[in-house]
Amino acid sequence: MAVQQQTVLRDAMRRLNMTRDVFASRIGVTRRALDTWLLPDGSPESRAMPEIAGRYVAEILERAPDGGEYTQRVQPAIAFEGRSQLLSVDQFSRDSAEALFRVADVMQPIARRQKITRVLEGAVLANLFFEASTRTRVSFGAAFCRLGGSVCDTTGFTFSSMAKGESIYDTSRVISGYADALVVRHPEQGSVAEFARATNIPVINAGDGPGEHPSQALLDLYTIQREFSRIGKIVDGSHIAMVGDLKYGRTVHSLAKLLSLYRGLKFTLVSPRSLEMPDYIVEKLARGDHVIEQTTDLRAGLTGADVVYATRIQKERFANESIEGYTPDFQINQALVNAVCGPDTLIMHPLPRDGRPGANDLATDLNHDSRLAIFRQTDNGIPVRMAIFAILLGVEHQVQHSMRDAAWRSPAYVGPDDAVFHGID
Ligand code: ASP
Protein backbone atom coordinates (compact mmCIF):
# COMPACT_ATOMS: atom_id res chain seq x y z
CA MET A 1 0.00 0.00 0.00
CA ALA A 2 1.43 3.38 -1.03
CA VAL A 3 2.09 6.05 1.57
CA GLN A 4 -1.10 8.01 2.11
CA GLN A 5 -1.27 11.40 0.40
CA GLN A 6 -2.00 13.11 3.73
CA THR A 7 1.28 11.77 5.14
CA VAL A 8 3.24 12.90 2.08
CA LEU A 9 1.75 16.40 2.18
CA ARG A 10 2.17 16.93 5.92
CA ASP A 11 5.74 15.68 5.74
CA ALA A 12 6.46 18.11 2.91
CA MET A 13 4.95 21.07 4.78
CA ARG A 14 6.97 20.24 7.88
CA ARG A 15 10.21 19.82 6.01
CA LEU A 16 9.69 23.06 4.07
CA ASN A 17 8.47 24.77 7.28
CA MET A 18 5.39 26.10 5.46
CA THR A 19 1.82 26.75 6.48
CA ARG A 20 -0.97 25.35 4.33
CA ASP A 21 -1.52 28.69 2.59
CA VAL A 22 2.12 29.14 1.69
CA PHE A 23 2.49 25.51 0.60
CA ALA A 24 -0.68 25.67 -1.54
CA SER A 25 0.63 28.68 -3.38
CA ARG A 26 4.11 27.09 -3.69
CA ILE A 27 2.64 24.08 -5.50
CA GLY A 28 0.18 26.23 -7.45
CA VAL A 29 -3.14 24.94 -6.09
CA THR A 30 -5.90 26.60 -4.11
CA ARG A 31 -5.97 26.33 -0.36
CA ARG A 32 -9.36 24.65 -0.68
CA ALA A 33 -7.92 21.92 -2.93
CA LEU A 34 -5.07 21.29 -0.50
CA ASP A 35 -7.54 21.09 2.41
CA THR A 36 -9.54 18.40 0.61
CA TRP A 37 -6.37 16.37 -0.09
CA LEU A 38 -5.50 16.51 3.61
CA LEU A 39 -8.85 15.26 4.86
CA PRO A 40 -8.92 11.65 6.07
CA ASP A 41 -9.85 9.15 3.33
CA GLY A 42 -13.52 8.40 3.40
CA SER A 43 -14.66 11.78 4.71
CA PRO A 44 -17.28 13.25 2.35
CA GLU A 45 -15.13 16.15 1.14
CA SER A 46 -11.80 14.35 0.79
CA ARG A 47 -10.31 14.21 -2.72
CA ALA A 48 -7.46 12.27 -4.27
CA MET A 49 -4.41 14.38 -5.06
CA PRO A 50 -3.65 14.18 -8.80
CA GLU A 51 -0.51 12.17 -9.52
CA ILE A 52 1.17 15.11 -11.14
CA ALA A 53 0.81 17.17 -7.95
CA GLY A 54 2.46 14.36 -5.97
CA ARG A 55 5.36 14.28 -8.42
CA TYR A 56 5.73 18.06 -8.18
CA VAL A 57 5.83 17.94 -4.36
CA ALA A 58 8.56 15.27 -4.52
CA GLU A 59 10.53 17.41 -6.97
CA ILE A 60 10.28 20.48 -4.75
CA LEU A 61 11.61 18.52 -1.81
CA GLU A 62 14.45 17.04 -3.86
CA ARG A 63 15.59 20.37 -5.16
CA ALA A 64 14.86 22.19 -1.89
CA PRO A 65 14.56 25.41 -3.88
CA ASP A 66 13.82 27.40 -0.76
CA GLY A 67 17.16 26.36 0.71
CA GLY A 68 15.19 24.66 3.46
CA GLU A 69 17.55 23.17 6.02
CA TYR A 70 14.91 20.69 7.18
CA THR A 71 14.28 19.15 3.77
CA GLN A 72 16.70 16.30 4.40
CA ARG A 73 14.70 13.33 5.58
CA VAL A 74 15.97 12.06 8.93
CA GLN A 75 15.28 8.47 10.00
CA PRO A 76 13.22 8.34 13.20
CA ALA A 77 15.26 7.26 16.21
CA ILE A 78 14.72 7.29 19.98
CA ALA A 79 17.74 6.33 22.10
CA PHE A 80 18.88 6.85 25.68
CA GLU A 81 22.43 5.84 26.59
CA GLY A 82 22.54 3.66 23.48
CA ARG A 83 19.27 1.82 24.15
CA SER A 84 15.82 2.14 22.58
CA GLN A 85 14.25 4.04 25.46
CA LEU A 86 12.35 7.31 25.89
CA LEU A 87 13.11 9.15 29.10
CA SER A 88 13.44 12.83 28.25
CA VAL A 89 12.76 15.26 25.44
CA ASP A 90 16.48 16.05 25.62
CA GLN A 91 16.88 12.99 23.40
CA PHE A 92 15.33 14.87 20.46
CA SER A 93 16.51 17.30 17.86
CA ARG A 94 13.96 19.22 15.85
CA ASP A 95 14.56 16.82 12.95
CA SER A 96 14.13 13.66 15.00
CA ALA A 97 10.94 14.95 16.64
CA GLU A 98 9.53 15.73 13.20
CA ALA A 99 10.60 12.33 11.90
CA LEU A 100 8.51 10.84 14.71
CA PHE A 101 5.56 13.03 13.65
CA ARG A 102 5.83 11.57 10.15
CA VAL A 103 5.37 8.11 11.66
CA ALA A 104 2.44 9.46 13.73
CA ASP A 105 0.81 10.69 10.51
CA VAL A 106 1.11 7.18 9.07
CA MET A 107 -0.78 5.93 12.16
CA GLN A 108 -3.71 8.33 11.70
CA PRO A 109 -6.02 5.99 9.73
CA ILE A 110 -5.53 3.37 12.46
CA ALA A 111 -6.09 5.88 15.26
CA ARG A 112 -9.27 6.96 13.43
CA ARG A 113 -10.34 3.29 13.32
CA GLN A 114 -10.48 3.09 9.53
CA LYS A 115 -7.56 0.67 9.29
CA ILE A 116 -6.01 -2.02 11.46
CA THR A 117 -2.51 -3.45 11.72
CA ARG A 118 -0.95 -6.41 13.55
CA VAL A 119 2.72 -5.40 13.41
CA LEU A 120 3.09 -5.93 17.17
CA GLU A 121 1.15 -9.20 17.24
CA GLY A 122 2.52 -11.35 20.07
CA ALA A 123 4.25 -8.44 21.84
CA VAL A 124 3.34 -7.62 25.44
CA LEU A 125 3.44 -4.20 27.08
CA ALA A 126 3.76 -3.82 30.85
CA ASN A 127 2.16 -0.58 32.00
CA LEU A 128 3.54 0.15 35.50
CA PHE A 129 1.77 3.12 37.05
CA PHE A 130 2.76 4.00 40.61
CA GLU A 131 0.87 7.32 40.46
CA ALA A 132 -2.65 8.33 39.44
CA SER A 133 -3.38 8.27 35.72
CA THR A 134 -6.27 7.90 33.32
CA ARG A 135 -5.22 9.30 29.94
CA THR A 136 -1.60 8.29 29.84
CA ARG A 137 -2.14 4.72 31.02
CA VAL A 138 -5.15 4.03 28.82
CA SER A 139 -3.75 5.76 25.75
CA PHE A 140 -0.41 3.95 25.94
CA GLY A 141 -2.38 0.71 26.35
CA ALA A 142 -4.75 1.52 23.49
CA ALA A 143 -1.85 2.56 21.23
CA PHE A 144 -0.08 -0.76 21.86
CA CYS A 145 -3.30 -2.72 21.24
CA ARG A 146 -3.97 -0.85 18.00
CA LEU A 147 -0.56 -2.02 16.79
CA GLY A 148 -1.68 -5.58 17.50
CA GLY A 149 0.03 -6.09 20.89
CA SER A 150 -1.39 -6.95 24.33
CA VAL A 151 -1.15 -5.04 27.59
CA CYS A 152 -0.64 -5.97 31.26
CA ASP A 153 -1.30 -3.20 33.78
CA THR A 154 -0.41 -2.57 37.40
CA THR A 155 -1.60 0.51 39.23
CA GLY A 156 -0.58 2.05 42.55
CA PHE A 157 2.14 1.27 45.06
CA THR A 158 -0.18 -0.49 47.47
CA PHE A 159 -0.78 -3.45 45.17
CA SER A 160 2.79 -3.73 43.93
CA SER A 161 5.78 -5.49 45.45
CA MET A 162 7.38 -2.10 45.96
CA ALA A 163 5.07 -1.84 48.97
CA LYS A 164 7.01 -4.88 50.29
CA GLY A 165 10.29 -3.03 49.81
CA GLU A 166 11.30 -4.32 46.38
CA SER A 167 13.89 -2.16 44.58
CA ILE A 168 13.40 -0.50 41.22
CA TYR A 169 16.23 -2.65 39.83
CA ASP A 170 14.54 -5.91 40.82
CA THR A 171 11.11 -4.83 39.63
CA SER A 172 12.45 -3.68 36.29
CA ARG A 173 14.52 -6.82 35.72
CA VAL A 174 11.62 -9.11 36.68
CA ILE A 175 9.12 -7.41 34.37
CA SER A 176 11.67 -7.48 31.53
CA GLY A 177 11.33 -11.26 31.54
CA TYR A 178 7.57 -10.95 31.05
CA ALA A 179 7.11 -8.07 28.64
CA ASP A 180 8.59 -6.52 25.48
CA ALA A 181 8.22 -2.89 26.55
CA LEU A 182 7.72 -1.03 29.80
CA VAL A 183 5.79 2.20 30.36
CA VAL A 184 6.48 3.59 33.82
CA ARG A 185 5.01 6.41 35.90
CA HIS A 186 6.56 7.00 39.30
CA PRO A 187 6.41 9.90 41.81
CA GLU A 188 10.17 10.45 42.04
CA GLN A 189 12.14 12.48 39.54
CA GLY A 190 14.83 10.34 37.89
CA SER A 191 13.22 7.04 38.95
CA VAL A 192 12.17 5.98 35.45
CA ALA A 193 15.81 6.32 34.33
CA GLU A 194 16.62 3.83 37.09
CA PHE A 195 14.08 1.40 35.62
CA ALA A 196 15.67 1.95 32.22
CA ARG A 197 19.20 1.22 33.40
CA ALA A 198 18.06 -2.12 34.84
CA THR A 199 16.81 -3.53 31.53
CA ASN A 200 17.54 -3.84 27.83
CA ILE A 201 13.88 -3.69 26.77
CA PRO A 202 12.37 -0.34 25.73
CA VAL A 203 11.29 1.81 28.67
CA ILE A 204 9.10 4.90 28.31
CA ASN A 205 8.88 7.61 30.93
CA ALA A 206 5.17 8.29 31.47
CA GLY A 207 5.91 10.92 34.16
CA ASP A 208 8.62 10.87 36.83
CA GLY A 209 7.34 13.10 39.62
CA PRO A 210 7.99 16.75 38.78
CA GLY A 211 10.61 15.73 36.21
CA GLU A 212 9.42 15.05 32.67
CA HIS A 213 6.55 13.71 30.61
CA PRO A 214 8.12 13.37 27.16
CA SER A 215 5.28 11.63 25.31
CA GLN A 216 2.87 14.37 26.43
CA ALA A 217 5.23 17.07 25.12
CA LEU A 218 5.55 15.24 21.79
CA LEU A 219 1.78 15.02 21.38
CA ASP A 220 1.45 18.67 22.41
CA LEU A 221 3.99 19.81 19.82
CA TYR A 222 2.37 17.56 17.19
CA THR A 223 -0.98 19.20 18.02
CA ILE A 224 0.45 22.72 17.86
CA GLN A 225 2.04 22.04 14.47
CA ARG A 226 -1.11 20.54 12.97
CA GLU A 227 -3.31 23.33 14.27
CA PHE A 228 -0.84 26.05 13.28
CA SER A 229 -0.48 24.75 9.74
CA ARG A 230 -4.27 25.01 9.31
CA ILE A 231 -4.53 28.54 10.70
CA GLY A 232 -1.51 29.95 8.89
CA LYS A 233 1.20 29.91 11.57
CA ILE A 234 4.50 28.15 12.11
CA VAL A 235 6.13 27.28 15.42
CA ASP A 236 9.17 29.49 14.76
CA GLY A 237 8.43 33.00 16.05
CA SER A 238 5.25 32.05 17.89
CA HIS A 239 4.15 33.24 21.31
CA ILE A 240 3.47 30.52 23.88
CA ALA A 241 1.92 31.37 27.26
CA MET A 242 2.34 28.65 29.90
CA VAL A 243 0.05 29.08 32.88
CA GLY A 244 -0.41 27.55 36.34
CA ASP A 245 1.91 25.27 38.28
CA LEU A 246 5.11 25.66 36.31
CA LYS A 247 7.22 24.43 39.23
CA TYR A 248 5.85 20.91 39.55
CA GLY A 249 4.08 20.57 36.17
CA ARG A 250 6.23 18.05 34.33
CA THR A 251 4.31 18.53 31.09
CA VAL A 252 5.40 22.17 30.82
CA HIS A 253 8.98 21.21 31.68
CA SER A 254 9.11 18.81 28.75
CA LEU A 255 7.12 21.01 26.37
CA ALA A 256 9.20 24.14 27.04
CA LYS A 257 12.40 22.22 26.33
CA LEU A 258 10.99 20.68 23.15
CA LEU A 259 9.72 24.03 21.85
CA SER A 260 13.12 25.58 22.53
CA LEU A 261 14.41 23.55 19.55
CA TYR A 262 12.52 26.01 17.34
CA ARG A 263 13.53 29.60 16.63
CA GLY A 264 12.63 32.98 18.03
CA LEU A 265 9.77 32.00 20.33
CA LYS A 266 8.31 34.21 23.00
CA PHE A 267 7.57 32.30 26.21
CA THR A 268 5.31 33.99 28.73
CA LEU A 269 5.45 32.05 31.99
CA VAL A 270 2.43 32.89 34.15
CA SER A 271 2.26 31.48 37.67
CA PRO A 272 1.90 32.38 41.31
CA ARG A 273 5.37 33.36 42.63
CA SER A 274 5.83 30.17 44.62
CA LEU A 275 5.14 28.01 41.54
CA GLU A 276 7.51 29.54 39.00
CA MET A 277 9.28 27.54 36.29
CA PRO A 278 12.50 25.97 37.67
CA ASP A 279 15.67 27.94 36.88
CA TYR A 280 17.29 25.08 34.97
CA ILE A 281 14.51 25.20 32.40
CA VAL A 282 14.41 28.99 32.15
CA GLU A 283 18.19 28.93 31.64
CA LYS A 284 17.83 26.33 28.90
CA LEU A 285 15.27 28.51 27.10
CA ALA A 286 17.51 31.55 27.53
CA ARG A 287 20.31 29.75 25.68
CA GLY A 288 18.25 29.88 22.47
CA ASP A 289 17.16 33.01 20.61
CA HIS A 290 13.93 33.19 22.62
CA VAL A 291 12.26 35.95 24.61
CA ILE A 292 11.21 34.88 28.11
CA GLU A 293 8.84 36.81 30.32
CA GLN A 294 7.73 35.72 33.79
CA THR A 295 4.64 37.25 35.34
CA THR A 296 1.91 36.72 37.92
CA ASP A 297 -0.55 38.75 35.84
CA LEU A 298 -2.74 36.30 33.92
CA ARG A 299 -4.52 38.91 31.79
CA ALA A 300 -1.28 40.55 30.65
CA GLY A 301 0.41 37.16 30.17
CA LEU A 302 -2.25 35.82 27.82
CA THR A 303 -2.45 38.91 25.67
CA GLY A 304 -1.20 38.24 22.14
CA ALA A 305 -0.42 34.55 22.77
CA ASP A 306 -0.73 32.07 19.90
CA VAL A 307 -0.98 29.20 22.38
CA VAL A 308 -2.26 29.32 25.95
CA TYR A 309 -1.09 26.14 27.70
CA ALA A 310 -2.92 25.87 31.04
CA THR A 311 -1.91 23.42 33.78
CA ARG A 312 -3.38 22.08 36.99
CA ILE A 313 -1.93 23.00 40.37
CA GLN A 314 -0.05 19.81 41.38
CA LYS A 315 -1.16 19.82 45.02
CA GLU A 316 0.00 16.24 45.49
CA ARG A 317 3.60 17.46 45.20
CA PHE A 318 3.34 20.37 47.64
CA ALA A 319 5.60 20.46 50.66
CA ASN A 320 5.16 23.89 52.28
CA GLU A 321 4.26 26.02 49.29
CA SER A 322 1.58 28.63 49.73
CA ILE A 323 -0.31 29.48 46.59
CA GLU A 324 -0.85 33.10 47.31
CA GLY A 325 -2.17 34.83 44.20
CA TYR A 326 -3.97 31.72 42.94
CA THR A 327 -7.35 33.38 43.30
CA PRO A 328 -10.47 33.09 41.11
CA ASP A 329 -8.85 35.85 39.00
CA PHE A 330 -6.37 33.23 37.92
CA GLN A 331 -8.95 31.20 36.03
CA ILE A 332 -8.89 30.90 32.24
CA ASN A 333 -12.52 31.13 31.21
CA GLN A 334 -14.62 32.28 28.27
CA ALA A 335 -14.82 35.92 29.42
CA LEU A 336 -11.05 36.21 29.79
CA VAL A 337 -10.33 34.42 26.51
CA ASN A 338 -12.80 36.66 24.66
CA ALA A 339 -11.23 39.74 26.23
CA VAL A 340 -7.55 39.07 25.63
CA CYS A 341 -7.07 36.23 23.11
CA GLY A 342 -7.22 36.34 19.33
CA PRO A 343 -9.73 34.45 17.14
CA ASP A 344 -7.26 31.63 16.57
CA THR A 345 -5.42 31.42 19.83
CA LEU A 346 -5.15 27.74 20.79
CA ILE A 347 -6.21 26.85 24.32
CA MET A 348 -4.46 23.70 25.49
CA HIS A 349 -4.14 21.71 28.71
CA PRO A 350 -2.54 18.30 29.37
CA LEU A 351 -5.59 17.36 31.49
CA PRO A 352 -7.04 16.47 33.94
CA ARG A 353 -8.72 19.81 34.64
CA ASP A 354 -9.44 20.17 38.32
CA GLY A 355 -13.18 20.85 38.45
CA ARG A 356 -13.49 21.09 42.24
CA PRO A 357 -14.66 24.35 43.81
CA GLY A 358 -11.77 26.78 44.33
CA ALA A 359 -9.53 24.93 41.90
CA ASN A 360 -9.53 27.83 39.36
CA ASP A 361 -8.38 25.49 36.60
CA LEU A 362 -9.33 25.87 32.92
CA ALA A 363 -13.09 26.53 32.90
CA THR A 364 -15.64 24.26 31.27
CA ASP A 365 -17.54 27.25 29.82
CA LEU A 366 -15.00 27.12 26.95
CA ASN A 367 -16.18 23.66 25.88
CA HIS A 368 -18.03 24.90 22.81
CA ASP A 369 -15.27 27.28 21.71
CA SER A 370 -13.32 25.86 18.75
CA ARG A 371 -10.14 27.46 20.13
CA LEU A 372 -10.23 24.87 22.89
CA ALA A 373 -7.92 22.17 21.52
CA ILE A 374 -7.85 19.85 24.57
CA PHE A 375 -9.71 16.94 23.02
CA ARG A 376 -7.85 17.22 19.73
CA GLN A 377 -4.76 17.04 21.95
CA THR A 378 -5.92 13.85 23.69
CA ASP A 379 -6.94 12.29 20.36
CA ASN A 380 -3.43 12.99 19.03
CA GLY A 381 -2.03 11.00 21.96
CA ILE A 382 -2.87 7.76 20.17
CA PRO A 383 -0.97 8.21 16.87
CA VAL A 384 1.98 9.81 18.69
CA ARG A 385 2.23 6.99 21.24
CA MET A 386 1.81 4.40 18.46
CA ALA A 387 4.71 6.08 16.66
CA ILE A 388 6.84 5.92 19.82
CA PHE A 389 6.20 2.18 20.20
CA ALA A 390 6.72 1.48 16.52
CA ILE A 391 10.08 3.26 16.51
CA LEU A 392 11.28 1.78 19.80
CA LEU A 393 10.36 -1.75 18.67
CA GLY A 394 11.64 -1.25 15.12
CA VAL A 395 8.43 -1.81 13.14
CA GLU A 396 7.77 1.72 11.88
CA HIS A 397 8.51 0.80 8.26
CA GLN A 398 6.14 -2.19 8.30
CA VAL A 399 3.00 -0.34 9.39
CA GLN A 400 2.03 1.21 6.06
CA HIS A 401 2.16 -2.09 4.16
CA SER A 402 0.42 -4.06 6.88
CA MET A 403 -2.76 -1.98 7.04
CA ARG A 404 -6.13 -3.57 6.35
CA ASP A 405 -9.63 -2.11 6.48
CA ALA A 406 -11.30 -2.17 9.90
CA ALA A 407 -14.32 -4.46 9.92
CA TRP A 408 -16.44 -2.37 12.26
CA ARG A 409 -18.03 1.05 11.86
CA SER A 410 -17.24 3.96 14.16
CA PRO A 411 -18.79 7.43 14.27
CA ALA A 412 -17.22 10.25 12.23
CA TYR A 413 -16.95 12.37 15.37
CA VAL A 414 -16.24 10.51 18.58
CA GLY A 415 -17.40 13.32 20.92
CA PRO A 416 -20.80 15.05 20.90
CA ASP A 417 -19.16 18.50 20.66
CA ASP A 418 -16.52 17.60 18.08
CA ALA A 419 -18.48 18.90 15.12
CA VAL A 420 -18.20 22.41 16.64
CA PHE A 421 -14.81 22.30 15.02
CA HIS A 422 -15.53 21.11 11.55
CA GLY A 423 -12.60 18.83 11.27
CA ILE A 424 -10.85 20.42 8.30
CA ASP A 425 -7.61 19.25 9.76
N1 ASP B 1 -1.65 14.32 33.32
C1 ASP B 1 -0.52 15.21 33.44
C2 ASP B 1 0.62 14.56 34.20
O1 ASP B 1 0.53 13.40 34.55
C3 ASP B 1 -0.90 16.54 34.00
C4 ASP B 1 -1.44 16.58 35.41
O2 ASP B 1 -1.53 15.55 36.08
O3 ASP B 1 -1.77 17.68 35.84
O4 ASP B 1 1.60 15.21 34.44
TrEMBL record:
Pathway: Pyrimidine metabolism; UMP biosynthesis via de novo pathway; (S)-dihydroorotate from bicarbonate: step 2/3. Belongs to the aspartate/ornithine carbamoyltransferase superfamily. ATCase family. Its EC number is 2.1.3.2. The keyword Transferase applies. This is Aspartate carbamoyltransferase. The keyword Membrane does not apply. It comes from the Bacteria. It catalyses: carbamoyl phosphate + L-aspartate = N-carbamoyl-L-aspartate + phosphate + H(+). Pfam families: OTCace, OTCace_N. Residues 85-225 form the Aspartate/ornithine carbamoyltransferase carbamoyl-P binding domain. Catalyzes the condensation of carbamoyl phosphate and aspartate to form carbamoyl aspartate and inorganic phosphate, the committed step in the de novo pyrimidine nucleotide biosynthesis pathway. It comes from Caballeronia humi. Residues 237-391 form the Aspartate/ornithine carbamoyltransferase Asp/Orn-binding domain. Signal peptide: none annotated. It is an enzyme of class 2 (transferase). Keywords: Pyrimidine biosynthesis, Transferase. GO terms for cellular component: cytosol. GO terms for biological process: 'de novo' pyrimidine nucleobase biosynthetic process; 'de novo' UMP biosynthetic process; amino acid metabolic process. NCBIfam families: asp_carb_tr, PRK00856.1, PRK11891.1. GO terms for molecular function: amino acid binding; aspartate carbamoyltransferase activity.
